[in-house]
Amino acid sequence: MKHHRQHQQQNIKLFIPKKITASFYCSFNERQKLPSSNIPYIAFAGRTNCGKSSLLNSLTGNKKLARSSSTPGRTQLVNFFSINGKLFFVDLPGYGFSKASLEVRNNISKTTNDFLLKCKDRLIIVFLLDIRVEPSEEDFQMKEWAKYHNVPLIFVFTKSDKLSSNKLINRKKRLIEALSIADEEVVMYSSKTGRGKDELLRKINQKISEFFTTDKPFP
Fold it and tell me: CA of 144: how far to CAs of 9, 42, 132, 185, in Å?
């Protein structure tokens, strides 16, 4: 098993090259079985309008990959995107959309929870937070859920181009303190300028490598 893990780790060191080919694969609630992969799913989570769709499009270089909407709660499905035919990015529905109906909120919550619980042993979460907005109760719940289930988190502060340099420094410090995390755990990202793209890809690679060096069996 150890030799097998080492072999897999060697194969995934450059699993996401700078040139990415990405395409929509499926939606979670349309299939009984999850897509097969020997690499953990990379799930992107965050509040509604935190810039998740824009980040996915920026990260993959495909401006039409993930659809963004001005209507909070419009994205109600867990969507899988195939990355270079080797692994999957997973776009989770945004949470915290007070204008959506109770039925819609409950359906999205159930879909997301079903996915997270089913995949918690083969999952890495890229956790997006708008740097201009204070963390919400749902943000803290996501962080605690990941900690409880030992799911790796990558913190990404989005929309870094929206603030001046001084405000950016202050907001970053504020969010780090509120979340009780270290500075090196955070990627500052701008989908508009591309800031943070290389760093985020590096951290994803790192988390996958760490996943295969643990004793946790791959499901």
Answer: 28, 18, 22, 16
CA dist 163 and 29 (Å) reads: 38
| Structure confidence at residue 30 (pLDDT) | 52
Q: What is the pTM of this model?
A: 0.85
Burial of 125 (0-12, 13-18, 19+ CB in 10 A): buried
Looking at residue 101, what DSSP letter applies?
-
CATH number of the domain residue 128 falls in: 3.40.50.300
Closest CA to 25 of 85, 82, 64: 82
- In tens, the pLDDT along 181-194 reads 999 999 999 999 99
Full residue range of the structural domain in which residue 76 is found: 2-213
Rounded CA separation 140/95 (Å): 12
| pLDDT tens track for 94-130 | 886 555 555 555 555 778 888 898 999 999 999 999 9
Reduce the DSSP state of residue 155 to 3 states and report it: strand
> In this structure, is residue 68 part of a structural domain?
yes
- DSSP character for 39? S
Q: Which residues pair with 80 in a beta bridge?
A: 26, 90
